[in-house]
Structures are given as structure tokens and as C-alpha cells.
Amino acid sequence: MAKKTVKEENWLLQKENGLCGLPAAKEKKIHSFCEGYKSFLNAAKTERECVREAVKLAEKAGFVPFQPGTAYAPGDRVYCVNREKAMILAVIGEEGCKNGVSLVVSHIDSPRLDLKPVPLYEKNEMALLKTHYYGGIKKYQWTAIPLAMHGTVVCEDGRRVEVCVGEKDGDPQFCVTDLLPHLSQEQSAKTLGKAIEAENLNILFASSPSEDEKGENRYKRKVMQLLHDQYGICEEDLTSAELEFVPAFRAVDIGLDRSMIGAYGHDDRVCAYPALQALLHVKTPQRTAVAVLADKEEIGSVGNTGLDSQFLAYFIEDLAEAEGLHGRHVLSHSQCLSADVTSAFDPNYPSAYEINNACSINRGVGVMKYTGARGKSGSSEASAEFTAHVRHIFNQNGVQWQMGELGRVDLGGGGTVALYVAGLNVDVIDIGVPVLSMHAPFEVVSKYDVYMTYKACKAFFEEGKE
Ligand code: MN
Ligand code: MN
Fold first, then answer.
1. How far is the CA of 398 from the centre of ligand 1 (A)?
2. pLDDT at position 358, please?
3. Distance from Cα 267 to the centre of ligand 1, integer Å
4. If you measure from the C-alpha of residue 258 to the centroid of ligand 2, how many angstroms do you get, rounded to a whole number?
5. Helix (H) or strand (E) holding 256
6. Angle at 323 between CA 463 and CA 274, to 5 degrees
7. Residue 276 in contact with residue 293, Cβ under 8 Å?
8. pLDDT at 124 over 50
9. What is the pTM of this model?
10. Is the distance from CB of 334 to CB of 316 less than 8 angstroms?
11. Measured between alpha carbons, how far is 328 from 383 in angstroms, rounded to an integer?
């Protein structure tokens, strides 16, 4: 019988609360790991910022830019960046990739309000910005909260301007206004999905007129003067910009016991950060270990920085060719943890879950055999064999895990990058941190589960090297 690493007296019970009887030293370790995670959250709120921070951490850990055609030796540490928005890191294993690679794939884009290409307008003596929401949001949650502006503007001559306003102490911030309750009788009678229209998610950007001009466009002109003074950009430059409005909150401890973290964008940095840390800390693994930080998961993994693109397959091909192998053979022997969040059971909404198959906070990393909607539509289901294999790795390495589905069957559903990796003929299973208020501007996770996800990724990378 396999070694039981959960407390012996509880081994018959599949799930237990990880905080019960947690030794103080371990708790300290967990909290200290999560301080690093909170700093990462505060430094990186967009996919580009995540890549920048990950490159910094990787270079500090001895990773160097990957050069296709180079023969790498076991223990070599490389990374490559795809268009500043996605990233692949690898530690070359003792046996290279001839028996496949161990992949952990997560994503670093999060739901937010993007600016439309022609965003700026004025109305009733205010300057506002039109937005187009990105990812699955409940629109009412994005009004009346402080927002920060992050992004990149590229001018016609190629000059780049990095923008980040609303994060530093004393910075101005922005918001989308909402109607006062006193005048909300009509709005309140609407359904939740209709009460706030997408075209009403307009950013309040400024309210003072330009002194140089009378009449129309005074408010718009004032904004453009300020943007020009600060960044040297004109209105047309906004058409070639990626400006994202994200919650201006910083990551904080939640609960009197500080057992949880509240922040914007846990989905999916709460898996990306543990996966990244696991790879940075891995010694020379047996098989080459690869971590992928992907973009565009929230809109279906489409586009050349999303997992539906070939950039991962090309990277594996390059690794394979350097060892005289075929990429398709390496992929066919590879195994993957698709590391993305799942929903945590919420006592305020018990009917949304089926309790026997729900993940709860503080019970470790969630394992989802499949995702999808209705009759498992759109899911990549892990095989019994691969699920057992992953269970074995976790159990042998003291990783507390729990099995779960997203929620009640036929209530909705969701997907991850798993199906795109599976499409490369890789064995793949979904694992990840259970989240409360997923996709809200302020999401909550348990520190214990974050740490268990780190341990899960590390054990997976180090498989066969006990
Ligand atoms: Mn996700
Ligand atoms: Mn998501």
C-alpha cells in the first residue's frame, strides 16, 4: 500500500483541513512564501508586468535567454519570452527530453477593463474613456472601485511608452461611476447581468477644461495636453496602445488570523507564481522541466501569445532538435499539470456546489480531472492512469490535495488551457488553487493552498529524483 502522508488517523478521510494541527514552523514557512507572492501580485498586475517580473526572478536564479540550436547540458536554465506577454522557462534534465518533458502551464492574464482603440471623449464637462471588458466579469463589480491604468503605448515611429498610474502612494486613481441608490429604482428592477451595461463602463478620467480653448473639446484637449506633457503622445497614439484598467488595491492578508490573501488577479497568478518558484528552485531534474506562463487564457487562449498558438510546440521542437530528437516524439511522452484556479466552496452560495465534489479553502491544491460545461463539453479529461500517477507523486511528497469540480452540473462551467496542451498529444490534468469570488476585482485564496500548489509543482518537476 502506498505511503500515507496525511495524518495516519485520518487517512480514510480523503479531505481534511490543512490548518488542523499545522506545526508553527510550517505555518511560518507558508506565510513567508506568501509574502513573496504578495510582492509579486503588487508588482505585476498585467501579463506584460508578470513577464517582466518573472524575467527578473529567473535571471537572478541563473536563467539565461534560450538560443535555439544550442546543445544544452543537464542543469542548464533557460527562458524565452513571446512578445513580452508570455514566457517559457526550462531546466534541462539529466536525461534531457528523450522521455518527454514535465510541463506546468499557467496563465498570467486576468479579467480587466481594456481601453477601446478610440477611447477618449468628453460629456457634460467631464473627460471619459470608453472601455471594452476583457474576460468574464460581473460588470456591476467594476463600478465605484479605485482603478489604476497600466499598459504600453507604441508611437508610429516605434517609440514605446510604459504607463502605470494609480499604484504609487499619492498617484491619482480612476473609477467607473454608478448611480446613487436614491435614483436606482429602475436600475434595481433589472437583472444583475443587465443593471450595468458594457457601454456604461466608462472611466472617469478628468474634469477640468483646457485654458487655451473655448467651446467643444476643452476637456478632451486638457487630457491630451497632460498626456503629451507626461508621455509625449497624441490622441492617435492611443490607437496603437494596450492600456488596461485594473483594480488599484494592493494584495492584503484577509482574516484576523491572516490565513488568506485578498487581491486582484489571483486567477491565475496564484498558480503562475508557485509554478515559477517551483521551477526556479528545482535542482537538475531527471526529465527536462518546463514552466509556461501563457497569455489570453481568459478569452479562450486564442492569439499568438495564447496556448492555442504553436509557441510551446516550437519551443519543445527546438529542445528536441538540439538533442537529435523529433518534437512530436518528445511531446507524445510529455506530461503536464495545467495549473489554473478552481472555485472554492462558498458558504453563502451552497447550492452552486455539489459538496462531495467541491474544493474548499485550506484543504490543499485542487485537482480537477476535467472542466468544461454541461456533458463535459469543452473539457480535456485526464485519464485514470495519469490521474493515479499524479496522485502518487503528490502523496509521496506530502502535497495535500483535494479532488473537485468547478460547481454543480449544468449550472455553468469553465475551461483552462488543458485542452490545448492535450491537443499536442501530452498527458494533462488540471490542478490549482481554490478561489473565493473568482473573477471579482478582489479575489480570496488560502495561504495554505498557495503553498501546497508550490509543493505540487515542485514534486511534479522533481519526479523520479527523491
Ligand atoms: Mn484561470
Ligand atoms: Mn479565469
1. 25
2. 95
3. 5
4. 25
5. none
6. 35
7. yes
8. yes
9. 0.95
10. yes
11. 20
Mention every residue, 6+ apart, whose C-beta is less than 8 A from residue 36: 273, 277
Burial class (CB in 10 A: 0-12, 13-18, 19+), 436: buried
Residue 379 CB neighbours (<10 A):
23
CB-neighbour burial class of residue 466 (10 A; exposed 0-12, middle 13-18, buried 19+): exposed
Q: CA 8: distance to chain centroid?
A: 35
- The whole-number pLDDT of residue 10 equals 47
- Ligand 1 centroid to Cα of residue 415, in Å, is 8
Q: How far, in Å, is the centroid of ligand 1 from the Cα of 123? A: 36
In degrees, to the nearest 5, what angle opens at C-alpha 434 toward C-alphas 278 and 243? 75
CA of 423 from ligand 2 middle (Å) equals 20
Beta bridge partners of residue 261, listed in sequence order: 253, 445
Task: Provide the Cα torsion 207, 211, 217, 221; round to 10°.
Answer: -80
CA of 25 to the centre of ligand 2 (A): 33
Identity at 437, one-letter amino acid code:
S
Element (H, E) at 421: helix 418-422
Q: What integer pLDDT is reported at residue 1 of this predicted model? A: 47
Task: Write the pLDDT tens digit of every residue in 182-212.
Answer: 999 999 999 999 999 999 999 999 999 998 7
The rounded distance, in Å, linking the Cα atoms of 122 and 125 is: 7
10 Å Cβ neighbour count for 327? 18
Q: Which three cell numbers mark 163? A: 504607463
Query: Of the ligands numbered here, which is closest to the C-alpha atom of 108?
Result: 1
pLDDT tens digits, one per residue of 418-428: 999 999 999 99
Residue 409, beta-bridge partner list: none
Q: Closest Cα partner for 14 from 402, 310, 298, 283?
A: 402
Residue 386 exposure: Cα atoms within 13 Å on the Cβ side? 23
Bridge-based pairing of strands 260-263 and 401-403 is unpaired
What distance in Å separates the CA atoms of residue 272 and residue 274, rounded to the nearest whole number? 6
Q: How far is the CA of 393 from the centre of ligand 1 (A)?
A: 23
Angle between helices 24-43 and 447-461 (to 10 degrees): 90
Burial 18-56 (b: 16+ CB within 10 A, else e): bbeeeeeeebeebeebbeebbebbbebbbbbbbbbbbbe
pLDDT-derived band of residue 9, with 50, 70 and 90 as boundaries?
very low
Task: List, for residues 250-299, the tens digit of each pLDDT value.
Answer: 999 999 999 999 999 999 999 999 999 999 999 999 999 999 999 999 99
In the structure, ligand 2 is a single-atom ion and the residues with CB under 5 Å from it are 267
Do 368 and 432 contact (CB within 8 A), yes or no? yes
